[in-house]
Amino acid sequence: MEPDESIRFRPTQESDLPWVLEAEKNEENAPTIICWTHEQHQHTLNDPDKRHWIVEERHAGSMVGFLILAGLDSPHESIELLRSSSQVSRTVMANAPFVRFSVMCLKNRRPTDYGWM
């Protein structure tokens, strides 16, 4: 199965934030990410320059990670991957979300406008 067929992206909801906080604390992730507070994640949900995404397994519908993009309002059209974390093997998350987001960002430049991800 191609990576873009096995995962999907959806905007993070406030109700997802407890899961996001746990994903950051995951023993595999803890050495590589400084945990944010609930308030920091919550702020990104309402910041027009940032977009907080949940990565889900398409068929199971289970959350497997999250990504935060920044620079969406940048006049330089520069989009930054601000944060990412995973609850599954790094091999699953290593390519699929980032390849998918890269292609989407290059083609569309405004990932906030697309609900099909």
What's the gist of this structure?
With 117 residues, the protein is of the alpha+beta class. The chain has one domain (3-113): Aminopeptidase (3-Layer(aba) Sandwich), CATH 3.40.630.
Describe this structure in words.
- It comes from Desmospora profundinema.
- InterPro entries: Acyl_CoA_acyltransferase.
- This is N-acetyltransferase domain-containing protein.
- With 117 residues, the protein is α+β, with helices and mostly antiparallel strands.
- It has one domain (3-113): Gcn5-related N-acetyltransferase (GNAT) (Aminopeptidase, 3-Layer(aba) Sandwich), CATH 3.40.630.30.
- Helices cover 34% and strands 24% of the residues.
- The chain contains 4 helices and 4 strands.
- The chain has helices spanning 3-6, 17-25, 38-45, 90-108, and strands at residues 7-11, 50-57, 63-70, 80-86.
- A 4-stranded antiparallel beta sheet has the order 1-2-3-4, sandwiched between helices.
- The radius of gyration is 14 Å and the shape is globular.
- The two termini are 17 Å apart.
- Residues 111-117 have low confidence and may be disordered.
Pairing-aware structural class of the strands and helices?
alpha+beta
DSSP summary: helix tally: 4
Tell me the CATH architecture: 3-Layer(aba) Sandwich
Helix content: 25-40%
- Overall mean pLDDT stands at 77
Can you tell me the CATH topology? Aminopeptidase
In the CATH hierarchy, what is the superfamily?
Gcn5-related N-acetyltransferase (GNAT)
CATH class: Alpha Beta
Dominant shape? globular
The run of helices and strands is HEHHEEEH
Beta content comes to: 15-25%
Could you tell me how far the N terminus lies from the C terminus, measured between alpha carbons in angstroms? 17 Å
What radius of gyration results from the CA coordinates? 14 Å
Can you tell me the number of structural domains?
1
Major β-sheet, in short? 4 strands, antiparallel
Q: How many β-strands, per DSSP? A: 4
Low-confidence stretches: 111-117
Strand order of the largest sheet: 1-2-3-4
